[in-house]
Structure formats: structure tokens, C-alpha cells
Design a protein that fits this description.
The protein has about 350 residues and is mainly alpha-helical. It has two domains: about 140 residues, Cytochrome c-like domain (Cytochrome Bc1 Complex, Chain D, domain 2, Orthogonal Bundle); about 140 residues, Cytochrome c-like domain (Cytochrome Bc1 Complex, Chain D, domain 2), CATH 1.10.760.10. The protein is built from twelve helices and two strands; from the N terminus they run H-H-H-H-H-H-H-H-E-H-E-H-H-H. The protein has a two-stranded antiparallel sheet. Helix 3 packs across helix 6. The longest helix is centred in the first third of the chain and has 16 residues. The radius of gyration is 24 Å and the shape is globular.
Length: about 350
């Protein structure tokens, strides 16, 4: 094989470059580079929609939109208004507060490792992150706007038309608005807790108490936590009635499916960063992790649709302390301190 043609192909671009005058050099192309998504080795690969591949500009656009109050009716609320990074993108208020001070009946769920979730909201009404992104904008108890008005505001904005064009090659629309916000939400990956370091081989990452608590959560048939809080993200993505009340106050998943087996059933949330996401349960009724443990240890309130997985069990004071200590070891400080997730 003659190496000269290959060598010529290598040298040719160099010759062309040096034969150009300064005025002849073409301008740099504004390329939207792929966003390099990283996660711990013990996490599975995140599925990304083919029509919304992650890129640097899409993530940056989604972040800007996430923190922008322009999405609400009166420019008073943003996504971040109810998803506070200092609380692992959860809401420290019992009921999230929307436009005109309207207080909702549910506590905003934390935004953690959403790229692996199979449904969204406490009742699972959305199947994709893109679908989820648009619902709070239109909800009269949250941002109270409508998509037509929001898109018109974005089109008239000084920056957004160009940003959408660079990210998606088209003006702002319902589809690209949803895709951009979902892109930012997908990068909110948390996997740097002391528990994760333990899983990765650092046997000293957890204390003796935390290791005992880990056994109660993951292995023991005493507390039965491991039926629902499983896997790398501590959730089985299902819905359960955990006996919070004797009667039905909130229909939960039933309102979505119409199936009576879903009455007052709510999504199993991740346990990651749970020490930061109080108050707890769909309605924020519990202020502390100890209260949550007590609820399950007491076997729930006996709702007729209560899952049989919630049943009375006995924990010693030391057991309870160990269990709560392990839950606190799921805190990922780097996640909440990450400047890439904070408003600029």
C-alpha cells in the first residue's frame, strides 16, 4: 500500500490553512456540543429520548428556563420557587405555594435522578419528563399560565428566540420548551453520598450505627423497607396506599387510572437526600424522619386499600436511631452545592 496519498490528505488541510490570508479564514461555527453525562459506576445507563439528545446548549437553555419566572402568569413563580436546591430540589413548605399565594394540597417532590424515573408526580400522571415539564406551568394552583401566552412571551424576549434556535434550530414552541426543561432536569444526578462511597468499596464510609441501619432498610424483614425502596435510587417506581388515613382524603393514583385498587395510593419516592427534603409524604404531614418511621412501625391507620406491606413491627430505640442514621447517610452534599445546578 502506498502511504503517500494518506500523507497528502493529512498535509493538505495544513497547506490550505497557511495559504489563507486573515480575511480568508472562515468564522468559527457555533456548534452545540453533546453534554457529557456522568454518573457513578453502580448506576445504570440513563435512557435519553432520541428526539431530545443532551447537548450543552439545551441543558443551558433548560437551566435558564427552570429559574425564570417568565413561565408563570404574573412573572412571580419559577420552577425553582417550589424546587429549592438547598432542599435537594424539594419544597420545605408543607404545601407548595403558587401564583396569588395559592397553597396546594401536595408537597413538591424532590428532583433527583429523574432520568431513570418511569412516571412523574405523586400520582404518576406524566409518563415522560417532557410531558411533566409543561403541567406546572398550566396548573391554576401553581404557575397558573397557559402555553400560548408563555410561548408568546418567549418569542418577544430579547434572548430566548436566539437561544432556542441555537439549541433546537427553531423558535420557542411547546415542544422545545418541554424538551429544554427536561434536559436540565436530566442532569440533576445524585450519587455521591457516603452510602455510595461504601458501595464503591470504602468500608469506612459508614459508621457502625449506619451499617446496622442499612441492614434494617435493605435486608431486614423487620421494617420491610426493601419491598419498595430498592435499587440504586431506592424506589421500585410503583404506587402504594401506606395507610396515612383511615378514609380517603386525596384519591391519589385513582384520579389518574380510575382503578379502585389505586385509591389513595401514591408514588414510592427515592430515599436519596431524604434528610434534606422534609416535610414528608405527599401532603407534607410529617416534619421528621422519626415521625415517618413511627408511622410505619405502628402499621398505618388501617385504610381499606392499605398495602399489606405496611404492618406493625417493633424497633428498639437503638434500631430506630440506626435506621434514621442510615437515611441521613444518603445525603449527597456535593449535589446541593453543585454550581452547575444553581442559578447564575
Amino acid at each position: 500500500m502506498n502511504p503517500r496519498p494518506a500523507l497528502f490528505l493529512i498535509i493538505l488541510p495544513v497547506l490550505i490553512l497557511f495559504s489563507c490570508t486573515e480575511d480568508d479564514v472562515p468564522p468559527l461555527v457555533d456548534v452545540d456540543m453533546p453534554y457529557v453525562l456522568t454518573h457513578p459506576a453502580h448506576f445504570p445507563k440513563m435512557p435519553i429520548p432520541e428526539d431530545n439528545e443532551l447537548t450543552v446548549k439545551r441543558v443551558a437553555l433548560g437551566k435558564k428556563l427552570f429559574f425564570d419566572k417568565i413561565l408563570s402568569l404574573d412573572n412571580s413563580q419559577s420552577c425553582a420557587s417550589c424546587h429549592d436546591i438547598d432542599h435537594a430540589f424539594a419544597d420545605p413548605r408543607k404545601g407548595s405555594v403558587g401564583v396569588n399565594g395559592h397553597v396546594g394540597t401536595r408537597n413538591a417532590m424532590p428532583l433527583i435522578n429523574l432520568g431513570w424515573e418511569k412516571s412523574f408526580f405523586w400520582d404518576g400522571r406524566s409518563a415522560t419528563l417532557e410531558e411533566q415539564a409543561l403541567l406546572p406551568i398550566q396548573d391554576p394552583t401553581e404557575m397558573a399560565s397557559n402555553l400560548e401566552d408563555v410561548i408568546n412571551k418567549l418569542l418577544a424576549h430579547d434572548e430566548y428566540p436566539e437561544l432556542f434556535d441555537k439549541a433546537y434550530g427553531e423558535p420557542p414552541s411547546e415542544a422545545t420548551l418541554a424538551k429544554a426543561i427536561a434536559s436540565f432536569e436530566r442532569i440533576l444526578i445524585s450519587g455521591g453520598s457516603r452510602y455510595d462511597r461504601y458501595v464503591e468499596g470504602d468500608t469506612n464510609a459508614l459508621t457502625a450505627s449506619e451499617k446496622r441501619g442499612m441492614s434494617l432498610v435493605l435486608d431486614s424483614h423487620t421494617a420491610e423497607c426493601n419491598h419498595c425502596h430498592v435499587g440504586f435510587n431506592f424506589t421500585d417506581h410503583t404506587f402504594h396506599n401506606t395507610g396515612l388515613d383511615r378514609g380517603t382524603i386525596d384519591p391519589g393514583r385513582l384520579a389518574v387510572t380510575g382503578d379502585l385498587n389505586d385509591e389513595a395510593a401514591f408514588k414510592v419516592p427515592t430515599l436519596r437526600n431524604i434528610a434534606l427534603t422534609a416535610p414528608y409524604m405527599h401532603d407534607g404531614r410529617f416534619e421528621t424522619l422519626e415521625e415517618v418511621v413511627d408511622h410505619y412501625a405502628n402499621g398505618g391507620q388501617g385504610h381499606h386499600n392499605q398495602t399489606p406491606l405496611v404492618r406493625r413491627f417493633i424497633l428498639t430505640p437503638t434500631d430506630k436511631e440506626d435506621l434514621v442514621n442510615f437515611l441521613k447517610a444518603l445525603t449527597d452534599e456535593a449535589f446541593v452545592e453543585n454550581p452547575a445546578f444553581r442559578e447564575e
